[in-house]
UniProtKB/TrEMBL annotation:
PROSITE patterns: LYSM. Residues 1-20 form the signal peptide. Keywords: Signal. InterPro entries: LysM, LysM_dom_sf, Peripla_BP_I. This is Amino acid/amide ABC transporter substrate-binding protein (HAAT family). It holds the Pfam family LysM. It comes from the Bacteria. Residues 24-67, 88-132, 149-192 form the LysM domain.
Amino acid sequence: MKKLVLIAIIFFATCITAFAQDFKTHKVKQGETIEDIAKQYLVTPFDIYALNPDAKKGLKVNTVLIIPTSKVKEEDLTTETKEIIGFRTHKTKRKETLYSISKEYDIEIDEIKKHNTFLYANNLRKGDKLKIPRYKTVVSKVTIDNSIKKYKVLPKEGKWRVAYKFGITVPQLEALNPNMNEVLQPGDELNVPNISNNEEKVIEENYNYYTVLKSEGYMALNRKLGLTQEQLETLNPELKESGLKLGMVLKVPSDVDTTISTNDVANTNLTSHLKNFNTKRIALMMPYRLNRIDIDSIADVKRAIRTDSRLSISLDFHAGMLYALDSAKRLGISTYLKVFDTRDHASEVTKILNSNDFSDYDAVIGPLMPDNFDRVASDLKRDNIPVISPFTTPKNLYDNVYQTVPSSDLLQKAMINFVKLDTLPKHIVIISDAKNKAVSSMIRSELAASKQIFSRKDKDGKDSNYILISDLDGVFKPGRNIVFLETSNEAFASNVISMLNGIHNDEQQIVLMTTNKNSAFEGENISNYHLSNLKFHYPSANKTFSSSTTNGFVNAYKREHNGVEPNKYAVRGFDLTLDVLMRLASEEDLFDASGSEIETEYVENKFRYSKKLFGGYFNEAVYIVKYDDLTIVEAK
């Protein structure tokens, strides 16, 4: 018996020795991924999964993994690589070339272009400020060649599709492919994790997909997507182990809108978050067009302000901005402001850009008009300087662009969500002209059981822009009736509003709404009494401040302007500028202070920025306002 036990022990010890020679063990540390561990032991993720099938469900700290012996030769594989440790700035002198600069700093021309991307499309100019990388040499004994593989991009595949397919985030894909094109083309060859074909995730067309942005947690995603953490984890089981990561691609239901969010969040008081008190460098570009005015003539100046709307807007915005600088100063935030007159001309904008160095500015506000704004944003993109559009919608939402006015789509969605969240009993009617038939159908698809009414047509089938009282027979019911009026025609708006006001009574209440409050609702034939009686609701980028409310800016403005209250352009200048300065003082730069969980509100405007995956920032904070006793107030 003892002999048999001894033989068994010898056999078992032999097996252990053999096992130890072919396998190793690894205890998982916090934050480690299968890819990290595979690189460390020079094996593939698939090799680890083959011996540790439970690892497919996710890694837990202190779990012990069996690691196969690497097929890479055991001798040290040393490679020298350069690691960037910082940058120095080089200001281009006359007659300097990329070749001479590359020799001066002993780096390749391609390396200079890589960190100064504007050189791919533009020639080197005198005065250009170049970022010159500083390196240290790193000797490495590890290769990851066997933990990654090459993958050819298929038609219609973008970064997020490839990242999702191989179970990594978009930033991880970008790290594996530093020279990857911004827009992938079929046939592009990329480095991807070396997993087996049957481990690749399939893009299911009956689902939608969302890429997690910076600082987004489950609460932010619940607000934006309407999905709880539990729902997200059910669709994306890997979340239970890994949690949310920047650039992670999540599968969501097909009916979830992954681009627009209009739900409210709690306002953030940035006063308690101030920590960066370096002087803020701000540029303001506006079309003052002072070259057209005789500034020595008071009469000429007054005439210009009265007749030139762009000058008037610029001066009002500028005035509000100065009050914001004073308010920020009281909080310890100092500002260097430089003002430029674009003269509303492209050549003048080009002259400003060529004659000034904006690389050390914290933000540029303006220009006012989209074409000139686009010129500035495109030029400053190379230095990643935030360029802020104060009133208009930018032509291109570059990575460095801030669109501060909510888009028409956001306004529309906010109005519909406002009605959806209203739990009181109601009947919904949509009245529109032919031009807004698509909007009417969209509202009907969002608000079930609503009834549509369209304007009448003439004998030739053209829109006549009116309805008859008979068209409304039997449409309204006792109780509350919500009526959407969708039109940009003043005659049609007047026709419908007058008719609704006549029908409205205590038994059959009518509340008028629209998703697009345009000039049709402000014409001579539109009665504000009727709008007030119908509690007219609409979405807006701003609200009207209450004169009964104490406000430091408004009071200071009235003191200095003989009791005159600031108009919406002056208030906009104050609100927008103060928001920019407060955000800059709360983080290292404006980009870091623009997470979608931060919503700020001032006198008439609020700001909550969301970033497009491959683009800039847009304000998604929207007000719903209403007429009440001949005043416009925020609807609750």
